[in-house]
Task: structure prediction
Amino acid sequence: MSINLIFKIAAVGILVSVLSQVLKHSGREEQAFLTSLAGLILVLLWIIPYISELFHTIETLFAL
Result:
């Protein structure tokens, strides 16, 4: 895993939190929720390959 992925996740987190707060203060709580959900899905799509690789490594480690 590279450091770039960590920076991307941090940038998405900061951006989503700012957008969410702006939307909540303007009375658009539904859009704030959808923005948070979209950020979460984006980050999950980025880390799914790493989780898959982790499970594959664990499977090969304990294979008999």
Observations:
- The CA atoms of residues 12 and 39 lie 7 Å apart.
- The two ends are 27 Å apart (CA to CA).
- The chain has a mean pLDDT of 94.
- The chain has one domain: 3-61.
